Amino acid sequence: SAVISQKPSRDICQRGTSLTIQCQVDSQVTMMFWYRQQPGQSLTLIATANQGSEATYESGFVIDKFPISRPNLTFSTLTVSNMSPEDSSIYLCSAREGGVGPLHFGNGTRLTVT
Amino acid sequence: LAKTTQPISMDSYEGQEVNITCSHNNIATNDYITWYQQFPSQGPRFIIQGYKTKVTNEVASLFIPADRKSSTLSLPRVSLSDTAVYYCLVGLNTGGFKTIFGAGTRLFVKA
Fold first, then answer.
1. What secondary structure letter does DSSP report for A36?
2. Residue range B34-84, pLDDT digits in tens
3. How far apart are CA A76 and CA A67, in angstroms?
4. Would the CB atoms of B95 and A102 count as touching at under 8 Å?
5. Is B80 strand, coil or helix?
6. Residues of chain A with a CB closer than 8 angstroms to some CB in chain B
7. DSSP conformation letters of B3-16
8. pLDDT value at residue B99
């Protein structure tokens, strides 16, 4: 199964700055997704990262705040822009390989905004 | 997307069998049922997936009745390391399908 690596694993950032999270998959995958998870809560889907085109965002998430890139079939980035303390959360990258089958997840990026 | 309902939490003791039931009354004909496990500070991990009747792997069994309006994840002889959150998801098992997570069930295994 696909192995997903995220960087950084955690960061503490100041309000108003931006952070880019990288997601690397060890094999080519069809679909990549970004989730957010507040401590003790379930996962919320932010967007689907589409290779070669703009990401598809879920309700409540916009490209200006969470720009996403997916330049190829193994890599994606999520930027959290103009951060506020409300953006403090765990951000998770996931991927589905081979076009079918379950999702695989990285271990997430724990972001704290002060 | 079919909505799922699970117990918020469950307690068990080591060595017991644990059954977590998930309700999905509006499951569609093409939907699959998938369970994930999540430990603290880790991403969710796929456990098992099924469409009907029973599926078993080295980790768990999944029981799905004929009407498919519910499913039960069965964990045999749990250990302390099975303490985690378990998510039941229902949806199409296709590459283009986005996966929406419900609230999950927090399982506490005690010594």
1. E
2. 999 999 989 999 999 999 999 999 999 999 999 999 999 999 999 999 999
3. 11
4. no
5. helix
6. 1, 4, 30-31, 33, 35, 42-45, 48, 92, 94, 96, 98-108, 110
7. --B--SEEEEETT-
8. 74
